[in-house]
Amino acid sequence: MSFAETYRARIAKYNPQLSAFVDLAGETATDGLAWGIKSNIAVRGLPRTAGIGAYRDDIAAEDAEVVRRIRASNGYVLGTVNMHEGALGATTDNAVFGRTQNPWRSGYTPGGSSGGSGAAVAAGLCDVALGSDTMGSVRIPAAYCGVQGHKPTTGLVSNNGVLALSHTLDHVGPLARNVETLWTAMHILAGWAPAEEIVQTDLSKVRIGIWNGDDAVEMTSVVRDGFDRACRALSDAGANLSATIEPCAYAYGRSRRAGLLISEVEAHAIHSDRLKQDPDGFSPGFRKLMEWGARQPASDLQAAYEHVSEVRSRADKTFDKVDFVIAPTAPQQAFSFDLPAPANQADFTAWADFAALPATAIYSGCDPQTGLPLSLQIIGASGEDRRTLAVAAACETIFGKPPMPPGFD
After folding, report:
1. Which tens digits make up the pLDDT trace of 205-243?
2. Which of 63, 263, 283, 375 yields a CA-CA distance of 20 to 30 A from 299?
3. Is beta strand 98-99 parallel, antiparallel or unpaired with respect to 208-210?
4. Within a domain: 22
5. Is the pTM of the predicted complex or chain greater than 0.70?
6. Does pLDDT of 281 surpass 70?
7. Confidence tier at 292 by pLDDT (50, 70, 90)
8. Is residue 298 part of a domain?
9. Which residues are bridge partners to 360 per DSSP?
10. Residue 170, domain CATH
């Protein structure tokens, strides 16, 4: 069976139960990586919906810049993958394009908004999937689905051709089953040259600060215990865990509100014309969020922008003390669709979006009690994507590469 046929066969076998892929490209395979593309990113000839029914007939006339780079690298675009409607949510329970299931447990969320990306990679339906990350939407699905995901430094990867949620906070980033593939993907997306091999960082020679949230973030006991085990494993392997830190100027409640306010105000501005033309093409929940954004006082929006600017301007002070920061990726593991989405899902991820920092989420083991993946996040200083991935590669040798979920071998 050829390279292309293998992936098409896996998609045909597993996608009906996962709802990860939405539209298939049907292109001739090349010899590069096989990619799934989040459906808010333009793929020539396919709908660019951003998970919104109102855009289901909008066929992209040309590729987004990141897709153009993928094709230039001989990459194979399999098709587009599902997402939370408008990228404004973290469950990928999409009433129009399907509820994407977590490959580790049916009936559980794969995270969002890039849930289709996480599920497709975890189930082995593609080598790499593109997601977009506004407050954690690449890294949270990576965590819930037990794969690796990277949010680049702001501006490193082009957003051209992306139907945005927030022009201020959006980032395009890759998810993959191992850090080496993330490294290769970032060479393609960021235009790094030459495509040198990744060299793992000696963890004894970098200062790694521990961000555990103390009592400010309501973590599940499973996540807290898993993070403590991961820190011990790193320390036992010789890592220099040099300090316990809190990110400068980042404040959980205030930052959470600022991110949501910016996202919902900017989403309304982006979709306002289509909302007038086709209000029924948006779910009542999504309309409600955008309408809330449209009602917010200009003074509140300005305060939110000022908070983001303050966090960004003071981020370097955190890295005066340490070279990298590690944290849980999310305060909880994947959860049942029957439960309400926790409000604090992005408490450990939004800092990197606000502060323009690179951040890599990596699998750190499965909890024996729940049987679900755990995840560690490595955050570097602005512009240090290569070094952040090199630290992630070293951590991956300690924790092991993500296994295939049961039933998807």
Report:
1. 999 999 988 789 999 999 999 999 999 999 999 999 988
2. 283
3. unpaired
4. yes
5. yes
6. yes
7. very high
8. no
9. 150, 378
10. 3.90.1300.10
C-alpha span between 128 and 124 (Å, rounded): 9
**Cβ contacts of 5 within 8 Å, gap of 6 or more:** none
Tally of structural domains, the chain: 1
Separation CA 15–CA 3 (nearest Å):
18
Taking the CA of residue 61 as centre, how many other CA atoms within 13 Å lie in the half-sphere pointing to its CB? Answer: 0
Report if residue 61 sits inside a domain. Answer: yes
Average pLDDT score over residue span 92-101: 98
pLDDT at 156 over 70: yes
Amino acid identity of residue 142, one-letter, is A
CB 345 within 8 Å of CB 217: no
> Tell me: the pLDDT tens digits for 337-347?
999 999 999 99
Domain that holds residue 86: 3-190
Q: CA-CA distance, 257 to 199, in Å (whole number)?
A: 39
Please compute the mean of the pLDDT values over residues 273-290 and round it to a whole number: 97
Quick check: is 31 in a domain?
A: yes
**Averaged confidence pLDDT in the chain:** 96
- Determine contact, residues 360/244, Cβ cutoff 8 Å: no
Residues 358, 320: Cα–Cα separation, whole Å: 16
Nearest to 188 by CA among 164, 163, 156, 153: 156
Please write down the HEC assignment for all residues of the chain.
Answer: CCHHHHHHHHHHHHHHHHCCEEEECCCCCCCCCEEEEECCECCCCCECCCCCHHHCCCECCCCCHHHHHHHHCCCEEEEEECCCHHHCCCCCEECCCEECCECCECCECCCCCCHHHHHHHHCCCCCEEEEEECCCCCHHHHHHHCCEEEECCCCCCCCCCECCCCCCCCEEEEEECCHHHHHHHHHHHHCCCCCCCCCCCCHHHCCEEECCCCCCCCCCHHHHHHHHHHHHHHHHCCCCEEEECCCCCCCHHHHHHHHHHHHHHHHHHHHHHHHHHCHHHCCHHHHHHHHHHHHCCHHHHHHHHHHHHHHHHHHHHHHHHCCEEEEECCCCCCCECCCCCCCCCCCCCHHHHHHCCCEEEEEEEECCCCCCEEEEEEEECCCCHHHHHHHHHHHHHHHCCCCCCCCCC
